Fold these 2 entries.
Entry 1:
Amino acid sequence: MSYQFEHVVVKMWWRRGIAVIYATNEESAKKVLEALKENGYPAVLFKYSLENVERAWSCYDAIVFIMALGGVVRTVCRFAQGKDKDPSVVTVDDGLKFVIPVLGSHWGSNKLTEELAKALNSTPVITTASEQSGITSIEELANTLIAKVINVNAIVKVTSALLRGENVCVKGLKELPKGVRGNYVIGEECKYNVVVTDKEVECRDENTVCLKLLKVAVGVGAKKEASPTVIKEAVFHALDILSLTLDRVSVIASLRDSVESVSKELGVPFRKITPEEINSFNDECLTPPSEKLSELGLKGVAEVSALISGGNGAKLILRKIQYKREVTVAVATVGEQ
Amino acid sequence: MSYQFEHVVVKMWWRRGIAVIYATNEESAKKVLEALKENGYPAVLFKYSLENVERAWSCYDAIVFIMALGGVVRTVCRFAQGKDKDPSVVTVDDGLKFVIPVLGSHWGSNKLTEELAKALNSTPVITTASEQSGITSIEELANTLIAKVINVNAIVKVTSALLRGENVCVKGLKELPKGVRGNYVIGEECKYNVVVTDKEVECRDENTVCLKLLKVAVGVGAKKEASPTVIKEAVFHALDILSLTLDRVSVIASLRDSVESVSKELGVPFRKITPEEINSFNDECLTPPSEKLSELGLKGVAEVSALISGGNGAKLILRKIQYKREVTVAVATVGEQ
């Protein structure tokens, strides 16, 4: 079976991962999981329980349920908080006949549905008009750029301009991220603006939203035999997924000394992590450890390393992905001081 | 276009009618409405509003939404109260490409979905296992028979027996209603029983649930030119839908004198209704009046007549259906004294 996903617009939505949750049919769930993983999405399998759904609801960007739609709807009703807060939700029936976007059609679940249906040879049940409506919100843009909104109070005015169809100039970028909708233009001649910067700036113009690009911490888990070349490739693969360049990385962290040499080569500070640090670290959004990790007495490597080295306030922005079965990489934002 | 519905098991579910609610695409909604009506289902069209959904939720047996699934799910979450209380919910996309059961798969919405998809040449998106699970509850059986449970406290024991797979004898019926699931048997030799009766009985055996068959009131609206023959056919058509025989009818009611002759011929008391009575009557579940009725200053005929003649506590059990475009018939239970 070969899977052909489009890795352009969508992947930015699923950086925090896709939870695959099944009620009874583990076999079908594993097929869905594999379809997602083979295409590089960070996907994690869970058996249905209210506890698991609750965690997935807050920790993952999307949930794919393998169960009947009626049960999914009852579950969604229990956890839904609003369009801006809920993950995308997709349902696949036990027989893998249909893939159905349930929540977040315009936030990526239609696209995920189409990709998954193609991979599984199922029918995508798209019920929204094909034309995507709406605009990319400032918050989404910030999220895509891995940036922080400095002056939140300017968002309303700039958003209103976008909704009226007025141009909003984006300054500080050479090109817009792919998939951005709305009248954003690269330029200088607008009444309303979005300024993207990596500097500490003051932002007093009420017609301008300032976005500060955040630094990131890269956590790496590697098998003993993983070569520096493969480790380096894995780091760049993760940065590529996030559309980040190396200058955004403030630290690379790992249990392995072999990663340190890669850090040095890349000119990025290295942070050595100890097993004790890992096991005293708690975050409910961590990917459950694999059997092998559990045997080693570790609750995780890549994600925990990224979060520890990111410092206080670090947030996971790329759930761990595997690279060539030898390396795992996860990325967190570096916490504000 | 020809519609071929199966009128066997399902129709009992939709006696209180199917609300067709559309967000924007009235044209598609009307096609759905016609598909339902041409097969005799009492179906009513509404534009989406929270008020209309709220009323449909409590007044109709099923709701078919013509809109995107995401919006339907958000709406369902707002109104859902539990499996036993919610109507069946089905979604059809604006393009009539998919028909999707959302709530109540085992309570009829899968069947409704299949019928509707066939009529509309759409894809039925069935996500539950094809085998229907579960048993017909005592309450459902009572509802099907248009009966009242006399000793509610015996329900738990008899239901437990059914869930254990034990036989439950049904006494007082020659055959079981179609579509009943579970180990109900016609017979006398069971530990657990359901007694169906039209008498006032005392019911003290804790292993026996007693169901008292209710009398009904038939409300008739007729065009001036409708012949007694057609009126009579219409009445029997309604009784047939409910699997009722004439001896269950305690009154026939109408604005029209022509209906009185039919009542006499059938040996059923007639209740003449006046326009004043109709317009001073209030029930939030009434089918909204047609344009023609509104012009005549009437808020409804068949349903109001049935409810008025049914007395205090009367409940609508068959939303008005049209017969040969000349007669409308609705049925209510006769209120307990």
Entry 2:
Amino acid sequence: MIGDLNLKQSIGSRTFAFPTPAWVVGTYDSEGKPNVMTAAWGGICCSKPPCVYVSLRKATYTHGNIVSRRAFTINIASEKYVKEVDYFGIVSGRDVEKFSISGLTPIKSSVVDAPYVDEFLLVLECKVLRIVELGLHTQFVGEIMDVKADPSVLTENGVPDITKVKPIIFAPGNRRYYRVGSCLEQAFSIGKKLQSNQL
Amino acid sequence: MIGDLNLKQSIGSRTFAFPTPAWVVGTYDSEGKPNVMTAAWGGICCSKPPCVYVSLRKATYTHGNIVSRRAFTINIASEKYVKEVDYFGIVSGRDVEKFSISGLTPIKSSVVDAPYVDEFLLVLECKVLRIVELGLHTQFVGEIMDVKADPSVLTENGVPDITKVKPIIFAPGNRRYYRVGSCLEQAFSIGKKLQSNQL
């Protein structure tokens, strides 16, 4: 162990990680007005029970909505809605009706107390399981009560196909949105080639 | 509000969300042996302090390592290491020395008690800030103490460029790895076009 031969550079204590999502969080406010906001600090965090989280600043309108309604949806937009996704991250539901202005359609979830975006092809409906205060952001862990998908994005095995959903990737750093590219390999498969080295 | 016109299909309470990462988690075991494992349940979860998490099953070797060492690294592999990344998710450090078999090089972090992968171009060095038990998975929230990057992946502004890092995306469902594709738009910018609708 003679130190980093590749001479990496320290770039500080910052949130640089790839990929991060650009997910649209759907909630109702105290008067039942549907709202959406975009969040990049989100991910799957447990398989059983199936859980997903989003981390939000207390200042956001969505933060208060989730605290009071104990529910939210994760709406995965396709590339063609990148303008709407970005807009949902720029303005606050405190000031504007984002659904009306974007022309998108809120649908009341049948399983949780939150709306989802009709036009988006993959939606996770979540009940709050845990609220973790971390600092500037609060992490809302939601149990995924159901996933709704447009039939057009499902494979013959009934699972969503990322190349049909065409989700948006957010890149911290240069703060740009990217497409998902081509398939590299099948997981839990290509790595087996290295197992022969174990012998 | 007349119900979902697009007739989405219920596909159950499952962890279907895009994108998820394929991150390599670096740790030391109780005897100081460096280990790596691949995790797709991970993400940024706070901006101040800067935090990232990975969720791991208790059965994994890495789970015990993080509990005892209170530190880990997140290593973001480039596409060309997809075979190694997959391998690190197939076998356990309890049984094999994954660094030796893959031929990759562990470097001791100077800021946390964990090793990182020399050959990977972007590395986050983390101290455990919070351990959240969710069910099958334990969520390890780490404070990002420093980020190390190969100078070749930095933009002129000193931030990592996703198109140079070429991270791997994991897709739950069909369980395949994907590339990052082309740039769609600049964030916090394209959405402003919709603001004129507010008037």
